[in-house]
Amino acid sequence: MILYHGGHRWEGPPTIQQHRRGHAEHGPGIYLTTSWETANKYAKGGGAVYRVTVGPPAGWAESTNIPVTDVIEFVRGLLGRGVRSKSTLESIERVHARMGGGMIPAFALIAIFVNADLASGKYGPPLAEFLVKHGVDASLVTQGTEDWVVVFNPSIITQVTRLNATDTRTPGFQFLLPKIAHRWLMGG
Prior knowledge:
The protein has 2 domains: about 1-60 and about 140-185, ADP-ribosylation fold (Alpha-Beta Barrel), CATH 3.20.170; about 60-135, no CATH class. About 30% of the residues lie in helices and about 20% in strands. It contains 6 helices and 8 strands. Helix 2 (about 70-80) packs antiparallel against helix 3 (about 85-100) and helix 3 (about 85-100) packs antiparallel against helix 4.
C-alpha cells in the first residue's frame, strides 16, 4: 500500500509523536493519505511530502474488538481516578452496554479518546501503544474522494521517501492514489 504524508518534522524511523491539541481527530498516529494534494497542504510552510509504503496491517481499528476489562484497566492506569477518568470510563461503559459480549470495538475507544480530547498530547502515544498491543495497527478513514490511514504501529511502515517538487512533473505521477480496497480492511 503506497500513501502520502505531508509534514514538517519527519526525522529518522517512523514513531508515534504527541499531536498538538485538535490535531488528532482520528486518533494518535501517523496520518497518511491517498491524496498528494492533501499531503502537500500539510507540508506547506517548509515541510515536505513523503511517499510511504505500508505493509498489510495485522488488524484494523474498524474490525478489531478489545476486552473491556483491558480497556478499563488501561484507562484507570493512564488517567488515574479523576474527573477525566470517570467521564471516559462512563463513555466506555455506555458503548459496552450497547455492544455486550465483554468487548469494545477499537474504533469506539479511539472515538471516546478523541471526543474527550485525550488522543492528543501526552495520552496519545500510550493509546497507540495499547491499540498495537491488542492487534490494532491502523485505522481507515474515508474523506470524500480520498482515504486516510492512521498508523498506530510504525513497524508496518516499510519505506519512507521524501518527494521533490520535480517528482510531480514526472509523466504518470499519481496525484490521487487508488482508494484502499475493502479487502485490506477485512484482512484479505
